[in-house]
Amino acid sequence: MSLSFNTAGPCIPGEHYMLPPERRLGRVLRLIEDRKYFTLHAGRQTGKTTSARWRRPLH
Asked: Is-contact 53 15, C-beta < 8 A?
C-alpha cells in the first residue's frame, strides 16, 4: 500500500504521510509525566488529534 495525504481525520503511520509527533511533543510529554495540566490548541488540520492519539513507544 502506498502512502497518501490525509485531510479527513487522524493520521495512521504506514498509511499516511506524516511528521513524527515526538519531535513536537517533548514539552507536552514532560507535562504529562509531571501530572500537569496543558491545553492543546491550534488551527484546523495541524495534527491535534493525531498528536493526542499518539503513544510513546515502549523502551
From this structure: no
d(CA 53, CA 9): 11
Count Cα atoms within 13 angstroms, Cβ side, for 3.
9
CA terminus-to-terminus distance, the chain: 28
pLDDT tens column, 8-53: 888 888 899 988 777 778 888 888 889 999 888 888 888 888 888 8
Answer whether 0.90 is exceeded by the pTM. no
Return the DSSP state at 57: P
The CB density around residue 21, as the number of other CB atoms within 10 Å, is 19
